[in-house]
Design goal:
The chain is α/β, with parallel strands linked by helices. Helices cover 31% and strands 17% of the residues. α2 links the parallel β7 and β8. The longest helix is centred in the first third of the chain and has 16 residues. The mean pLDDT is 95. Ligand RRO binds next to loops.
Length: 309
């Protein structure tokens, strides 16, 4: 099969494992052939290590999942010392995108600068849309145009790698936000992060998650992600990575029809660790059977995205 070339990177499949759902690749190597997926996006990396929010951090409900992991990660030095060597040794040529987070624009800059000279990954995804960062008071940078601009102004000059910006689903005009990100140097857009949510015990009214509120993911948010990708793809010419609620190959094909060039499987991997591979193989089958119908949007020559069909 011909790889999909996006951001100058060859992806064997247009299906990635989304940020926060596969660590730094450790859970992947035991359950699938690396050639069965397109790549991974790591857990978001912050300048300092973080232990995350109080348990429970994850709750299932009928149509999906609520999480408030709280950005638990080993921090910049831990990633340089432990994770990157592990990835270089075990992930071979699998494309890796490092997700980056912070509380200030300068923190994003620190992580990007600290990793830029390292091998073992190909691109950065700036996570501007985590709904679970108490210090940002529920207003991630993706929902504040000045902060989004400030992050890109700090980060863009510090890397020659592709910069992908991950946006929030609860954005009243996600197309405009994507256009702003591209105007400030973003090479791609990921849409979307989880949807702010809250679940309580019916008997006590107490929150189910240790941190209280969380981010909603899973099949419930498939139409949310599709709408966001459609709006973004209509506004910008850069590749769009569609994330949200993908469990089956058909879900991924819907994202391609909405204008995505790549997709990310997230929550689906928790129920079925092989979900990403299953989706990738189903997409490959559909695309080889009917390429005109099921192709992803081209990375370099974006055709018009259908408006309301
Ligand atoms: O760690 C988290 O709680 C988290 C992050 Br960084 C994110 O971007 N999205 C999410 O649902 N959870």
């Amino acid at each position: 099969m011909r790889p999909t070339r996006v951001f100058g990177i060859d992806f064997q499949h247009p299906v990635l494992l989304a940020a926060g759902t596969c660590g730094f690749g450790e859970p992947v190597i035991d359950v699938m052939d690396l050639s069965d997926i397109g790549g991974i996006v790591t857990k978001s990396v912050t300048p300092e290590p973080r232990s995350g929010n109080p348990a429970p951090r994850v709750a299932e409900y009928r149509h999906g999942m609520l999480n408030s992991v709280g950005l638990a990660n080993p921090g910049l030095e831990g990633v340089r010392r432990d994770k990157l060597p592990w990835m270089r040794k075990h992930l071979g040529n699998l494309p890796v995108i490092v997700s980056v987070a912070g509380h200030t624009p300068e923190e994003y800059g620190q992580v990007v600068e600290g990793l830029e000279g390292e091998d073992g990954f190909q691109a950065f995804e700036l996570n501007l849309s985590c709904p679970n960062d108490a210090r940002l008071g529920g207003r991630p940078f993706a929902l504040d145009p000045e902060s989004l601009e400030a992050v890109l102004e700090v980060v863009r000059p510090r890397t020659v790698r592709p910069l992908i910006v991950k946006l929030a689903p609860n954005d009243p005009d996600i197309g405009a936000t994507a256009a702003l990100a591209v105007a400030h140097g973003a090479d791609g857009i990921t849409a979307v992060n989880t949807v702010p949510g809250y679940l309580t015990q019916v008997s006590t009214g107490r929150p189910i998650l240790g941190a209280g509120p969380g981010g909603t993911s899973g099949p419930a948010i498939l139409p949310v992600g599709l709408a966001a990708v459609r709006q973004v793809a209509q506004r910008v010419d850069v590749p769009v990575i569609g994330v949200g609620g993908i469990l089956s190959p058909d879900d991924a094909l819907l994202y391609f029809r909405a204008g995505a060039t790549l997709v990310g499987v997230g929550t689906g991997s928790f129920a079925d660790p092989r979900c990403g591979a299953r989706v990738a193989l189903g997409v490959a089958r559909a695309q080889s059977t009917a390429p005109d119908v099921y192709s992803a949007r081209a990375a370099t020559a974006p055709g018009p995205v259908p408006s309301e069909s």
